[in-house]
Amino acid sequence: MSDQGKSLGFEPIALTGTERALVSEVRAFARAEPFPPSAESPTRGGFSREFSVELARRGWVGMTIPTQYGGAARSGVERCLVISELLAAGAPLGAHWTADRQTAPSLMINGPETLRRELLPRIASGLCLIAGGFSEPESGSDLASVRTRAQKVDGGWRITGRKIWTTDADKADYIEILCRTSDSEVKHKGLSLIVVPMDAEGLTVTPIEGMDGERHFNEVVIDNVFAADDWLIGKEGSGWEQLTAELALERAGPERYLSTFPLFESFVQSRRHAAAPEHSHEFIGSVIAQQLGLRLMSLSIARMVDEGGSPVAEAAMAKDLGTELEQLLVDQLWVYRYEQIEPGAAADRFHEFLDINRLRSAVFTTAGGTNEVLRLLVSRQLGSWARSGRIRALGSPLAETVYEQAARIVADPDPAFRSVPRERSDAASLRVFDELRTTGYLGVSVPEDLGGSGGSLSDALEIVRGTAYAGTSTPLVDGAIQAGWLLAQAGIPFPWADELAVVGTGSVRVTDDGTTLTGTVDEIRWPDQATTLVVPIEQDGKLHVATVELASLARPATGANTAGEPLVRAVRLDAVPVRQLVPTGLDHAAGMETLARRAALARAVALSRALQRTAEISIEYAAQRSQFGQPINRFQAVQAHLTRLASEAQRVAVLVDAAHAALGEGSDPAIDFALVAAARTLSGNAAMTAGRTAHQVHGAIGVTMEYALQRFTRRLWEWSAADGTSARWASRLGAQAVSGDLAAWQLITGI
Fold first, then answer.
1. Full-prediction pTM beyond 0.70?
2. What region holds the Acyl-CoA oxidase/dehydrogenase middle domain (predicted)?
3. What is the pLDDT of residues 90-101, one digit of tens each?
4. How far apart are CA 357 and CA 168, in angstroms?
């Protein structure tokens, strides 16, 4: 499993004002009237040459083609945004798809100029359909083994061979043929790409009927077909490099997770006519979280291409995750095919989309390269990905500093710092707490004039990043991020340099005279380290903040959760004296929502960094552990496990980092609901998969106290259930998605 090229990775991107305006413009056009479900080119919304011409007239075909060739000279990100809107609406894009998506960019890079002048204006006008003649009967995903040959003759080439699974070849104007133009001991060498008009003598196309009765695929027999010299793309023998770049564009596009979005949206819209629609909210929210992560990955890849990159492995990773989601989506929705639902247009539309995709879903994970092969492609870069993970996971001097402090503690040879048995507090995390207090980090994000260390919520999350990546826990989530925010809203100063305050929520009420609290606090974390409990109280619909001295509580002995974090549960308050009770001026519901979002984002940040490190440890271990005479990372099954670990970590990270980046600076920034809910949902769900997969890779050593993996998996499991479970946040996302016709798509796009 060797490393090739740069380390793979994704960076979240923020859309510019121009890009957001473009989205709104395309959406207004695409959503003017609903497109009917179509089984004709279903993964591309349908087939209509007239519609392709209309899109071209608006400048939405050939968007990245330079103006000198009739294009709009816009960015790959802008094209991705336009295509996403059209796919989500179910618009028919099949008539220009391949030419626009991959042939045009290849021609712009490789030429020749004569072919650019011939084809690019036609592509930009929506008048050119190009089929991809790549796969052969004996060469499916192994395209380097193609047998089609091109023999050099006067003025051009004579091509002979056979292609199969060639989409829309029966409708195409041209075909792009991968063929061998010279022999080489290295099978990837000596390949070329040549374009041939479909009316060329010697081409025979035979449609292949699919199990849905449609004829999307074709067999193409190429019998001594002539192609002029200047129909060779780029240099002779460079076909493999060109094809790899083209396939990256094919695999990374939004169609890899949005071709089934019209189906999903029709299901969401039909819930208003179904019995007990709330039962599907969690499922809907989980799908939205995955799609939001995939959208960010797709846009990130488009930005890389705009900047001159060739994100082959990133595209393979995105395609694997996206098409698996699409395939599973059809399976999960199939149980609703014969549900009891109010008859009408909404139900009919959902059922028709479902029937179409039921018979097409089997091909989702094979088209564009089977997912199993793509995982092998990604696995070749996992070593460099793991080695560069620290830079990617931390990303700031503050996170790096905190990580180094925590990592030194965990590395202490004293066995007590490795981890602890169940129900005992983690000594390493307790030592980290002391370090954070000594360095003044406990009060980060709390204004200095209120006793804090200053800084922003983003700064506090950087501290969470550093401690989580080291496999330790921090009181900042319950302290400065929640309790500190409540105290600041009430204007209550607190000596964060010397003491710790933690939040306590539950069913608690204050007496009429405001002097005592009665009720139950669900949980108090870090009770032995904290001096003050901060309790949000509702009075007349408004948020008040009460403080209580923890020493005044009659509480159970401190225990610990599965991560070794100290806590007590179900603490009864019986007329406990209130030290302070101060109004905030905020509505109680709004204040509690802000508190929940702050906690959810902090947990998502912690989960994402623990996920990253879990994947890295597993990759490092698999490279060192030998079985049957070789490292276990050479076994395909192990490679698949490792690729899935890294893929899940990357999808979570790009979403969590986008939610983090959206905060900007400030101790009390607005927190986007969709981003945070999706980040919390996705990170919590991925935690369960990652923990299981990592332990499968490690075997027995992974469950021992002496080995580092358990520090991370114990936190993944614990944090996935903390501060509102992933299921709860998914249900909230789903409920909001059902509230309006385009609500699901608006949650995904933020527009």
1. yes
2. 133-225
3. 999 999 998 998
4. 18
